[in-house]
Amino acid sequence: MKLVYIKENACVECKLCELACYVEHSPTKDILDAYEMQIRPLPRCEVDVELPYSASIMCRHCIDAPCLTACQNGSIYRDERGAVIVNEKTCVGCWMCIMMCPYGVIKRDRRHGYFGISTKCDLCPERETPACVDACPNGALLFDDRG
Amino acid sequence: MRYVIIGNSVAGLSACEAIRANDKDSAITVISDEPFFAYSRPLLSDYITGHVKIEDDRFHYRRAAFYDNLNIERMLGKKVRQVDTKNKKIILDNEAVEYDRCLIATGGTPFVPPNLKNSDIEGVYSFTNLTYALELEQALKIAKKIVVVGAGLIGAKLAEKLSLNGFDVTIVELTNKVLGLALDVPASSIVTGQMIKAGVNVITGDSVSEIMGTKKCEGVVLASGKKIECDIVVMAIGVKPNVTIAKASGIAINRGLAVSETMQTSVKDIFAAGDVVELYDKVFQMNHPIPIIPWASVCGRIAGENMSGGYKIFEGGFPVNSISIGNASFISMGYAETPEDCQEYVNDKRIDEGIYKKIVVKEGAIKGAIFMGEIERAGMVSAMIKDNIDVSSFAERIVEDGFWWHSLERTLREKLTRRV
Ligand SMILES: Cc1cc2nc3c(=O)[nH]c(=O)nc-3n(C[C@H](O)[C@H](O)[C@H](O)COP(=O)(O)OP(=O)(O)OC[C@H]3O[C@@H](n4cnc5c(N)ncnc54)[C@H](O)[C@@H]3O)c2cc1C
Ligand code: SF4
Ligand code: SF4
To answer: Residue A135 pLDDT > 70, yes or no?
Structure first.
């Protein structure tokens, strides 16, 4: 399947990927609307920096996804594209997925009521190419099928 | 081929998914003694406090169309008594079901100490399934004072939630700290603080020796002699493998139902998975039950794969838990207290804000970890245990603030960031 591949040496820590991600995951997908939201969506990719290292890290959509088998109530599933998706309507924020994710790429969103919501990359189901990849000015993220 | 799955829960349904992926046509039957749709046990305490309802999607282990989509026949509300291994029949109360391959996924049963006086009177409850939760829910309509026995993962969470819902709750724990198996002293103190803040009366280093009352529970007597009045006692000192069927059928049992790496029992064509079995523990290096959802689901899947012509083995597990009590969220795995022959790496710089991190290392291998407050990278550590990663050269970085991919050497980063 197609996946976002990370090229460490090309990242210039501009964080445009993070910006593009939260705009894409906002209701209107408009940058100003998204910026002004009271509860702004969390970016699902995050730039990990300790120079000279910098890279935007997000879910790897693992083949035997440990987050999916750990989930207590079937809130994580694989869609037709092969992407590993969190059902945010049923997630109860128990963080068992975080406990098993080998990449440390799941975020906790606790701003929406009694239950927290596990938040991670969904490979932008409404786009041809994920927003982070399109936003990167330096080709540090590649959307590629390497089997 | 006819598959029969005993147990309508995590291990059983994970096996069904694996079987259906390999075998589109054969009949699959799921049998359970509870009449309900498969549900999520960690949510039972949220059910009790009214935050989830029986009909909510989030209470269910799989969505409503699951059984139809996978073409699975259900026999719910029926108890299996025995497996006739010679004639390949599952024996229920008034009927029998034939099988070619069978999975025993009967989970655990609550442990009640045999010498506890009066443990069978009205007002004493267990809390390991929905049937018990429904009984407790009824009793809570008139009860005011509750004693929870055992401050493990189930007891601690229930006590906190009941207290926040206005009940007068006391929790009694035999050891000197709450969540003793999962947390060390500093982390446990943070949780105790959160429980006290929620209004729970926390008693450690004491145990319940007698339940007072003749017909109905009136209170408890502790080993120290102290008496506590209450209307309800909830026993939460642990679960043990539910091996009743295995015992009646002559299937080998050790600390739990004994299985090979392929989840096969001592009897051909009978597999087992989930809380009912004992597993190889990579950290503690022995076989014992590790009754948590991740292994129930992984092993159920492995069993299903092997039952339907595939081949997969289980390489070992270890205790690993994630819980939130009040503001304290934590993930812990393996050893909580550092054994003498291990080294520990601790970051307690922000313990006042409830942030605490520790790993336990022996000969380069991680043997335990506690992440409290900041838990996002805990899964990297559980993966390092699973993959036998030698952490000697960067162990102290794991507990540092901001630990992530930059903290690792390039070769290891590349090894770990391949798509698993
Ligand atoms: C209150 C509570 C909180 C928990 N919290 C967590 C948590 O936060 N994280 C975590 O990882 N784990 C947690 N657990 C443990 C987790 O629920 C179990 O690990 C998991 O449910 C095990 O799945 P299983 O399929 O092996 O068995 P179970 O879920 O126990 O299911 C057993 C099935 O077998 C059926 N059965 C049993 N005997 C018979 C019989 N004779 N005939 C027919 N059917 C039978 C039962 O009806 C049931 O359908 C919690 C458990 C409880 C009780
Ligand atoms: S969230 Fe983590 S475990 Fe789940 S698919 Fe993504 S990288 Fe894998
Ligand atoms: S946090 Fe949500 S998605 Fe993650 S394991 Fe818990 S319920 Fe499932």
So the answer is: yes
Q: Which residues of B touch A109 (CB under 8 A)?
A: none
Tell me whether residues B407 and A50 touch, CB distance under 8 A. yes
CA-CA distance, B167 to A20, in Å (whole number)? 47
The side-by-side arrangement of strands in the sheet containing B168-173 is B124-126, B232-235, B145-149, B168-173, B201-204
> Would the CB atoms of B301 and A69 count as touching at under 8 Å?
yes
Element (H, E) at B390: none
List residues in chain A touching B: CB distance below 8 A: 3, 6, 48-50, 53-55, 57, 60-64, 66-67, 69-75, 89-104, 106-108, 114-115
pLDDT, residue B410, reads 87
Average the pLDDT over each of B57-66, B91-100, B112-121, B279-288 and give the range with the smallest value.
B112-121
Pick the CATH number of B338-419 from 3.40.50, 3.30.390, 3.30.2010, 1.10.287: 3.30.390
* ipTM of model: 0.96
Question: pLDDT above 90 covers what percent of chain B?
Answer: 95
State how far the Cα of B294 lies from the Cα of A69, in Å rounded to an integer. Answer: 6
In contact, B236 and B133? CB cutoff 8 Å: no
Whether B420 shows a pLDDT value over 60: the answer reads no
A138 in ligand 3 pocket by Cβ < 6 Å?
Answer: no
Tokens of A39: 């509860």
Taking 70 as the threshold, does the pLDDT of residue B21 lie above it?
yes
Residue located nearest, by CA, to atom 37 of ligand 1: B106
* Ligand 3 centroid – CA B113 distance (Å): 33
Look up residue B41 and give its DSSP letter: G
Interface of B with A in 11-40 (CB under 8 A): 14, 40
At the topology level of CATH, where does B2-108+240-307 sit? FAD/NAD(P)-binding domain (3.50.50)
The yes-or-no verdict on residue B419 having pLDDT over 80 is no
Give the integer Cα–Cα distance in Å for B135 and B70.
32
> B124-235 belongs to which CATH class?
alpha beta
Fold of A62-120: Alpha-Beta Plaits (3.30.70)
Q: What is the pLDDT of residue B417?
A: 66
Strand ranges for chain A from DSSP E = 2-6, 46-50, 53-57, 76-78, 84-86, 107-109, 117-119, 141-145
**Domain residue ranges of chain B, discontinuous segments joined by +:** 2-108+240-307, 124-235, 338-419
Taking the Cβ of residue B182 and every Cβ of chain A, the question of whether any pair is shorter than 8 Å is answered with no
Q: For chain A, where do the domains classified as CATH 3.30.70.20 start and end?
A: 62-120
Q: Is residue A81 predicted with pLDDT exceeding 60?
A: yes
A100 lines ligand 3 (CB under 6 A): no
| pLDDT, average across residues B74-99 | 97
* DSSP strand pairing (B101-104 vs B270-272): parallel
Q: Which ligand is nearest to the CA of A84?
A: 2
Identical fold at B2-108+240-307 and B338-419? no
